[in-house]
Amino acid sequence: MASITSLGEFVVERQDDFKYAKGELSRLLSAIGLAARVVNREVNKAGLMEDILGDVGEENVQGEQQKKLDVYADEEFIRALKDRGEVCGLASEEREGVIEFKSGYAVSGQYVVAIDPLDGSSNIDVNVSIGTIFSIYRRTSKSGPATFDDFMQKGTEQVAAGYVIYGSSTMLVYTTGNGVNGFTLDPSIGAFFLSHPDMKIPKDGKIYSINEGNYARFPEGVKQYIKYCQVEDPATNRPYSSRYIGSAVADFHRNLIKGGIYIYPTTTSSPNGKLRLLYEANPFAFLMEQAGGVATDGFNRILDIQPTSLHQRTPLFMGSENMVKTSMDMMKEHTPVG
Ligand code: AHG
Ligand code: MN
Ligand code: MN
């Protein structure tokens, strides 16, 4: 039998790559893995449980309807990370301000976590893949609960980032800045095993992922790029295929494996884009670069953006290097100067 490596074993094996205290990261990632398994259990039986499906009836800080699973996942990840001694606070899509961990061990925790507990909410009720996205930083404050400024660090300062995809199988994919590795949950054992070592995105792809329903509201450069994707040109494998799930985690995961580009640009109705910098774009950008891909806002690298608020949005162009570069050329060409 081929040797198998569990997530826990892998993190311990690789902890020399990590420049901070060795045990901290493995405890933190195991807490995330635990919460992921708990959320996975609820996601898997969502169709059986009417009280899990549907809206809570409240809006979150983005003014979006909160689904019950959003709230459940938010609570489970907070619960898993609280009182462990590694994390002093969180920023979550579902909460307006910093979640300060004030008790015992937590105040001496050296890390803060930004999280999208449930990504792809609109797909919960229809049995389509959803996910969780996380981003981990060293705190910049000295001690006590996490502060707002702890989260105002550029994406380049992330010490780890990853996502969980609750799909046809459940996977946890993460990076600590030394490549990207993917683990698949064996539900019969309840453990993640290394299934996708050293993931790399192809330099070219054949898939473009964008909500084309917003076409009329896109910048001219994006419209031109979509046309480019649709042109018949066998030499460059065009036309490309259009694939858009509407769960960014699932679109990211597919494009990472197959090659492709994901674009959520500015639109005339969302002039800053839709996706959130801290817990969507930054972790995706860290993973994408570590897998050999590119992540920009159409003009500049995502990881170099200086955050100024917890829930700030950014346009996002990410994926296979050559595809993202072509889209950026078109953005530049069609942006009025002055
Ligand atoms: P969330 O469910 O966490 O609010 O995120 C939804 C995001 C992202 O997952 C997805 O790619 C995008 O919003 C879909 O937006 P549109 O419906 O506007 O295409
Ligand atoms: Mn999301
Ligand atoms: Mn979400």
Question: What can you see in these coordinates?
Answer:
The termini are far apart. An eight-stranded mixed sheet has the order 4-3-5-6-7-8-9-10, sandwiched between helices. With about 350 residues, it is of the alpha+beta class. The protein has seven helices and 15 strands. Strand 7 and strand 8 form a beta hairpin. It has helices spanning about 5-15, 20-45, 70-80, 220-230, 250-260, 275-290, 320-335; strands spanning about 55-60, 65, 85-90, 100, 110-120, 130-140, 160-165, 170-175, 180-185, 190-195, 205-210, 240, 260-265, 295, 315-320. It folds into two domains: about 5-195, Fructose-1,6-Bisphosphatase, Chain A, domain 1, CATH 3.30.540.10; about 205-335, D-Maltodextrin-Binding Protein, domain 2, CATH 3.40.190.80. The chain is about 30% helix and about 25% strand. One manganese (II) ion binds near residues 116, 119, 248 and 280. One manganese (II) ion binds next to strand 5.
CATH topology of the largest domain: Fructose-1,6-Bisphosphatase, Chain A, domain 1
| Main sheet attributes: strand count, strand direction, barrel closure | 8 strands, mixed
Structural class computed from helices and strand pairing: alpha+beta
Write out the strand line-up for the largest beta sheet, numbering strands in chain order: 4-3-5-6-7-8-9-10
Number of helices: 7
The chain-level mean pLDDT equals 93
- Rg calc: 19 Å
Low-confidence stretches: none
Instruction: Tell me the count of domains.
Output: 2
What is the CATH architecture term of the largest domain? 2-Layer Sandwich
Bound molecules: 2,5-anhydro-1,6-di-O-phosphono-D-glucitol, manganese (II) ion
Let me know the number of strands.
Answer: 15
Q: Topology as H/E string?
A: HHEEHEEEEEEEEEHEHEHEEH
